[in-house]
Amino acid sequence: MTTPTHYRWKHGAPRTVFITGSSSGIGRDMARRLAAEGANLALFNRSGAEDVLQELRAAARSPAQRFAAWRADVSDAGSIAAAVAQAVHDLGAPDLTIHSAGVLHNAPLAQSSAADFDHVIDINLKGSRHLAAAVLPHLAARSHLVFIASLAGLTGSFAYTAYCASKFGVRGLAEALRFELKLQDIDVSLCCPGEIQTPMVAEEKRHMHPISAAMKAFAGSRTLDASVPALLRGIARRQFEIVDGPRPALTAFLSRHTPRLARWTGDRIAARALRAATTHPTPKAPQ
After folding, report:
1. Closest residue by Cα to residue 121 from 151, 165, 85, 175
2. How many CA atoms lie within 13 A of 242 on its CB side?
3. Is 187 helix (H, G, I), strand (E, B) or coil?
4. Confidence of residue 79 (pLDDT cuts 50, 70, 90)
5. How far are the Cα atoms of 4, 40 from residue 1, in angstroms, in the given order?
6. What is the pLDDT of residues 9-23, one digit of tens each?
7. pTM for this structure?
8. From CA 113, how far away is CA 253, in angstroms rounded?
9. Cα distances (Å, whole numbers) of residue 243 to 57, 88, 120
10. What's the burial of 145, exposed, middle or buried (CB within 10 Å: 0-12/13-18/19+)?
């Protein structure tokens, strides 16, 4: 008898999954949950992943499942293409590919260099293009390509010029690619979560602009245990746009259907946060 899965997969639980950015955060949590669904997994990270592989083996449904990791830089088209080709050779073509690799950058444009901007675009946007180009030749009908974008790909936010530009770009890439791949019976999904409590976000908060913190608080913050299952449920149903949780969904709704109200609300939050920061400045850390 087949063991039931945790999600209602439209075309059956995935057999082979490729995931970028699986060394921590969303990608790592998704990998662990998909191992529990019975999938073989290929991981692509810039650093080693032996600890993640051990975690997957512990979560696996069957000892026959296969897990492997490759060092690859998604901002380098040749690097990710070579790693994907080797993974296909070793594990077979993926029926689910999840692009989770990404970076954050929180600073007003006037305080960001061109190199800062390029770094975010190279990984978040161009990396999405490079992974898609690498896996497309190997995808069969009913395969599924998933981009982890952000609520910042649906609405702007203070001091996130580079990040919002990159995630809006990922959204455009996914929208266009959906039309191209639908003709081949390949689905595309775009995950747009709000803030999720990951190590990358925890590090960002140490230096986050207070106005950014106030605007992000409006959409709320969720744990991996709350957010990732919601994202995977949408992925299992083959939804195109997936937003996790009621507060991120409200933020997305306001931005899309009442943009003037959304901007007015954002302006009010920013002005209030600026007054608070001016009245009660954050004390500087001792040198």
Report:
1. 165
2. 23
3. strand
4. very high
5. 9, 20
6. 999 999 999 999 999
7. 0.93
8. 33
9. 29, 30, 22
10. buried
Tokens encoding 186: 């390949």
Domain 16-208+220-257 has CATH 3.40.50.300: no
pLDDT of residue 287: 45
Q: Which residue has the tokens 């791949």?
A: 181
- Which residues are part of the catalytic machinery? 163
Question: Chain-centre distance of CA 189, in angstroms?
Answer: 11
* Tens-digit pLDDT profile for residues 222-249: 999 999 999 999 999 999 999 998 999 9
Sole residue written with tokens 């030749």: 137
pLDDT of residue 105 exceeding 60, the answer is yes
The two structure tokens encoding residue 235: 């992925």
b/e string for 249-268 if b means 16 or more Cβ within 10 A?
eebbebbeeeeeebeebbee
